[in-house]
Write a structure and sequence with these properties.
Alpha-Beta Plaits; two-stranded antiparallel sheet; globular
Length: about 300
């Protein structure tokens, strides 16, 4: 039985494709973008997040931890991930939900059952299901299985991917998708690899394949301060995308909505002092794309 790990099944999504949708956030991603709103999807494994702001210092979790993975240090709870055996006692015993599990295992039918609860909304709004993450291609077999199941059920599918994996897997999954969202972090190979940890070579190669597949393709560009937020970089994007022949672009303003997750995972969020961008902040970049003939939208 094919199973996959998801961090969230988000119903009534309106920014992840046409109409009202259900977005499946899948665990695992090869990139390590320091601004990521979903850092809990980096690892393919289940994880425990600790929301310190919700902790009332009752000490129940520390006393119950048989592996002694939780300790008090300077009036704060510190968790040793290496010694933790994921027994879930801290999650189950915490009355304030300061400890939460990130990552639940689902079968294809379990996901399908959840998704079909909103079939009436999909039909009325022209919506469907969006696979996001994380990177859905890292769970290729599960992704293929649920896409095929959705097709059997007559549900519109959107795949959001970085496209950084081998083209054979990319094309196999793409054949079962109605709409493709490709995240394009930066047009410069060196900068892309330096900041995200992965080259953009496969992304660009797979964008070409997506163009030739006759699928509906939208390029999604997260606009991030200190990374790609400039008119000059917008011109670089235009050059690359014009060469490929893709001309439908969404510019996504940087926001701080992932900050709490980074803190709950005990990770350093280096974008904590940056101000969120609004739609108006992206107008100059959008103008570059529009003047070059691109169908350009600010926001998802």
């Amino acid at each position: 039985m094919t199973k996959g790990i998801l961090t969230n099944i988000q119903r009534f999504s309106i920014h992840d494709g046409p109409g009202i949708r259900t977005t499946l956030f899948m665990k695992g991603c090869p990139l390590r973008c320091p601004w990521c709103a979903n850092p809990e999807t980096f690892s393919k494994k289940k994880e425990i997040l600790f929301w310190e702001k919700d902790c009332v210092s009752c000490g129940v979790c520390v006393k119950s931890c048989k592996e002694e993975s939780l300790t008090w240090i300077n009036n704060s709870i510190i968790r040793d991930e290496k010694s933790c055996n994921m027994c879930m006692d801290c999650v189950n015993l915490c009355q304030k939900s300061a400890f939460l599990l990130s990552g639940m295992e689902y079968t294809v039918e379990e996901v399908f059952e959840e998704v079909t609860k909103d079939m009436a909304f999909y039909r009325k709004s022209g919506g469907g299901v969006t696979l996001s993450g994380g990177e859905p291609l890292l769970q290729k077999e599960f992704t293929l299985a649920i896409l095929k199941r959705f097709k059997e059920g007559g549900i519109h599918t959107t795949l959001e991917t970085t496209g950084v994996l081998e083209s054979e897997s990319f094309l196999e999954v793409l054949s079962h998708v109605d709409l493709l969202y490709m995240d394009f972090k930066h047009p410069n190979k060196e900068i892309h690899e330096k900041i995200t940890g992965v080259s953009n070579e496969f992304t660009i190669k797979n964008m070409r394949l997506a163009k030739s597949s006759q699928k509906d393709v939208v390029i999604r560009i997260p606009v991030i301060p200190r990374f790609n937020y400039s008119v000059e970089v917008a011109k670089e994007y235009v050059t690359v995308l014009k060469d490929i022949g893709l001309e439908n672009v969404h510019l996504l303003p940087f926001h701080q909505m992932g900050k709490g997750k980074w803190e709950a995972m005990g990770k350093d969020y280096t974008y904590g002092t940056e101000k969120s961008l609004c739609d108006e902040d992206l107008e100059e970049m959008a103008k570059i794309f529009r003047e070059a003939g691109f169908e350009t939208q600010i926001g998802g």
